[in-house]
Fold each of these.
Amino acid sequence: MIEYIILGIVQGLTEFLPVSSSGHLAVLERLFGLSEQGVAVSIVMHLGTLGAVFVFFWRDILAALRDRRMIVFILAVTLVTGVIGVLGKEFFESLFTSVKAVAAGWVVTGVILLLTQRFMGNSRTAVAARDAGILGFAQGIAIMPGVSRSGITIATLMYLGVEKVTGFTISFLASIPSVAGAALLEIKDIGGAVTGDPAGLAAGFACSFWAGLFALWLLKRMIVRAHLHLFAYYCFLLAVVTFIWIK
């Protein structure tokens, strides 16, 4: 069970901090010998952090549900992400077994985060329809392990001129349908994993939820202080360590 608790805590912290939860989970699952259940375990942990999103952003979610333009925007983002996810499903899943692919993803995330320093002064507090396709594409690319979904989507919105805290909120609102959809697509694998160790997965789910709440609070604080780029150095360090020590 301890392996699942560690995975849950790591998932909760890294899902929202821009350092790629998928990359951390792919490496840890390999170290713990859980690689054969990799996708199923990852989805269960993601459901825990999805719950954290509902709790942390509940006011924003209610506001979005009353805003027809925002609903259409999120649906458009989800559609683009879904097309990428379905068409590239086998390719993305194959990357979870490649530690070198994970390390490369961390390098990409690090570069993207470093560039955000130039866009911290943006003031646009609303997204436009044309932003949906770009954000959906960025979120689709983040399926690859090592590429942070929160990092690449928040950075993309900032590159498009959106104010940093607004981008933080929209990034996570847009993630809800995609994460929920991914869980539905992999429901058969989740069932098999639960049969294997239901208590362990339940513990991991709970840990990912509480760690996720803390990570959201911390990330928002870092963004407000314009310190998002500092996570880039952690990603570069992980990439180096992974390339050198993990075979």
Amino acid sequence: MAELALSLPEVDPDRPSPARIYDFWLGGSQNFAADREVGRRAAEAMPTLRAAIWANRAFLGRAVRHLAAERGVTQFLDLGSGVPTVGNVHEVAQQINPDARVVYVDIDPVAVAHARHLLSDNPRAAAILADLRRPDTVLAHPQLRETLDLDKPVALLMIAVLHFIPDHEEPGAIVGAYRDRIAPGSFIALSHAAPDIEHPQEQRDMLGDYNRSTGVTFVNRPPETLESWLSGTEIQPPGAVMVNEWRPDGAVDNTPILRTFGVLARKPDTAG
């Protein structure tokens, strides 16, 4: 078994981090100058980017509320959770059901450190430093095992994180590995950036700068790819749609956003 990630390593403030850049886009304060500089350049290159980030965050909130209030989900595993900010999963879920349990997983030490501080007085939530690309290591983590019962249904959240995994690392296989390990009746919620139809060159230029600055690959993929990763599950209505169109609370917000799709799927109660 791979070594479990239990400690927080040193942080290089001069190396931009996707988690901290995302925090900057959401108006958070847990980021460094290097993160803000990359974030500003990206937002200037693609004016619809910030709106997409907020729409994606709202999608997460609606998905968690739907799962907790309407599907009876009491366990949530948030992979690539990022820096804690407004509308965290445990806040949304535990407002509906105070007994809901949540585990956050991220590879960024700053994100995990702040999450642990936020959760210091919350016995039903935990944050662990681990690489979601290693499902066996994540699912064997002692804190995860202490918090969640994987023999019972869980909501697996992979929100705006799989586009950081290049094709050669087989993100679909990673999703499949988690799908195979979670209990029947569990749910998987994904969101993912897609190729922009109206401004393809601007998007390519933005991503080129982002990839060079962070050293992290960012891959846009169409919604059909997300659906293919969910083979063996039941994709829930309305399917893979733009995040601002997924079960909106009221009228759809028509503010232009960089194309980002969300989807919710359920693992069947029985195989086959």
Amino acid sequence: MLHESVQRNHDLIDHASRRSPDPRRILLAEDDREMRSLLASALRSEGYDVTNCRNGDQLVDHVVTPSSQVDFDLIISDVRMPAHSGLEILDAGRQIAGFPPMILITAFGSENIHAQARRLGAVAMFDKPFDVDDLVSKVAEILAPESLVH
């Protein structure tokens, strides 16, 4: 069902045409309120514009619906969330031209999950608990101007 939604809407979303150089926009999807707050705060303190999602449905609303008004430079998503998993979003995003890179975070980091994330194109994967500074450093590396493909 998620793939069908992406198929219907991918022509209506042109991420590249709305890309703004600064501040970098991050879509953060995490169902744990405390973790979401911690990560959003750390990213905002580095100057990023962060939009929060508390589940997979909200994440889908931001990236694959025609009403999506904000373009994102990066998505950080928990793997296991209500409605849709981060892996499902990553897989579906491969069908959208200009879909932003994704970092996945998980408390259930098996080798199988890591392999699937790599196969689907995740730019990084963090197992909880992780050092927030390491995540922020990885975000800076990914969003460095020379790293972004326009």
Amino acid sequence: MQTIVSPSESKTADTFPINGTDHIEFYVGNAKQSAMYYQAAFGYEIVAYRGPETGSRDVVSYVLKQDKIMLVLTSTLDPNHEIAKHVAFHGDGVKVLALWVDDSEAAYRAAMAKGAESAFEPHTIEDEFGKVTLSAIKTYGETIHTLVERNDYKGAFMPGFIARKSERPVTSTGLKHVDHCVGNVELGDMNKWVKFFGSIGIFITPHI
């Protein structure tokens, strides 16, 4: 299934207007090593970080950016953490497709009214650079869509992260933006997910 997130579509057709892809978060076995690979192979720059040095005792994340693409590579220091279990079962892969919206709570409530299942309810996090409101709905498999409202935030990524730069020179490979995301859904459930995403205003092109 090919999930098309299209901010150019008429907003009147959407259950909630989507401005674009905010970020894509991968759960990985070794976030530092993965961040080095994405810099060397694909030309991403590190822009933010969280880990033990920032008060995150069991989760480490590197935020990488190239033009309008934002990736978050996350791993855990706790072998019993849900992230470790996810990586053990699936290998390195996407956990979160985060969508940039103007009103996270309104988008969440609209999606729930259309039959979405909650991953977590709306809440706001803050630091000296402003605030970000987050909520999330479950989708196919263990993937979630986080609804990110960041109109009032001026920091590197979001509260809980600190700005960080790549330690070595990085050469861009010319990647510009997220064109589309592909989700491999459960056998026999493609029509169910096409109908679901259509009902909440995300446009789908099915591929078999």
